[in-house]
Amino acid sequence: MRTPQRRVPADFQLHIAERWLDRGAESRDPFAKFFCYFAGVNALYHLWSKADDIRGRTPGRPGNETMQIGHLFCGGCGERL
User: Fold this and answer.
1) In the prediction, which pLDDT does 9 show?
2) In this predicted structure, what is the pLDDT of residue 24?
3) What is the pLDDT of residues 42-75, one digit of tens each?
4) Phi, psi at 52, each rounded to 5°
């Protein structure tokens, strides 16, 4: 595990995800492993939501999660899920 010297929020969030994923890899308990992996993925999802403006505060961007996920899958092709 790296020692954090974080100044950028994205680096901080990536460090959190990395720590959860490391703890999951070290765990022998299946539930603890699941919990740690879930928390790590959730930390990455939180970072993605901030980076991709999931709430739609940027003009011209889809304003809800379903539209954002559709945008990611089809690359803005306009197809609905």
Assistant:
1) 74
2) 94
3) 888 888 777 766 565 666 655 566 666 676 676 6
4) -100, 5
Number of Cβ within a 10 Å radius of residue 15: 17
Q: What are the pLDDT digits (tens) for 2-23?
A: 555 545 777 888 888 899 999 9
Opening angle at CA 28, ends 23 and 31, nearest 5: 80
Q: How many CB atoms lie within 10 A of CB 61?
A: 14
For 47, residues 6+ apart whose C-beta sits below 8 A from its C-beta are: 10, 13, 14, 17
φ and ψ at 58, to 5 degrees?
-95, 130
Give the C-alpha separation, 81 to 71, whole Å: 10
Distances in whole angstroms, Cα of residue 29 to Cα of each of 1, 3, 20, 68, 71: 20, 26, 14, 35, 37
